[in-house]
């Protein structure tokens, strides 16, 4: 069903239009866990990622790659270049629905 445009939609409503076909293997890799633990007090990836893929869990970074929006921000956003970002394998990843 379509509405009179997408203006005024909340993030939650917009995210309802997203579907994911997750691969079994992550396309995102935190390369050196020690860098996150010892050299990155702000854990900025937990802030800039619009999909909240990165969650700090006591001493390690949990990467919920299944919900990645493939915006590419973490390719440039990590101040230590500690995230390896690849496109998901063909047929996997995010699927956009347009209404
Ligand atoms: S921004 Fe980079 S270095 Fe910092 S916590 Fe995230 S992945 Fe680790
Ligand atoms: S590509 Fe975008 S949505 Fe995916 S993990 Fe990186 S910042 Fe988050």
TrEMBL record:
Domain of life: Bacteria
Protein name: Ferredoxin-like protein
UniProt domain 4Fe-4S ferredoxin-type: residue ranges: 59-88
Keyword Transmembrane: no
Organism: Paenibacillus contaminans
PROSITE patterns (UniProt xref): 4FE4S_FER_1 (PS00198), 4FE4S_FER_2 (PS51379)
Family label: To ferredoxins from P.putida and C.tartarivorum, ferredoxin I from A.vinelandii, ferredoxin II from D.desulfuricans.
Keywords: Electron transport, Iron, Iron-sulfur, Metal-binding, Nitrogen fixation, Transport
Statement: the UniProt record of this protein carries the keyword Repeat: no
């Amino acid at each position: 069903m379509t509405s009179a445009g997408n203006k005024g939609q909340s993030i939650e409503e917009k995210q309802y239009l997203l579907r994911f076909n997750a691969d079994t293997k992550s396309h995102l890799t935190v390369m050196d866990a020690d860098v996150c633990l010892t050299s990155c007090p702000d854990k900025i990836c937990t802030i800039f990622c619009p999909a909240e893929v990165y969650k700090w869990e006591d001493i390690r970074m949990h990467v919920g790659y299944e919900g990645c929006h493939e915006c590419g921000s973490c390719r440039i956003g990590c101040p230590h270049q500690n995230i390896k970002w690849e496109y998901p394998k063909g047929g996997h990843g995010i699927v956009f629905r347009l209404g």
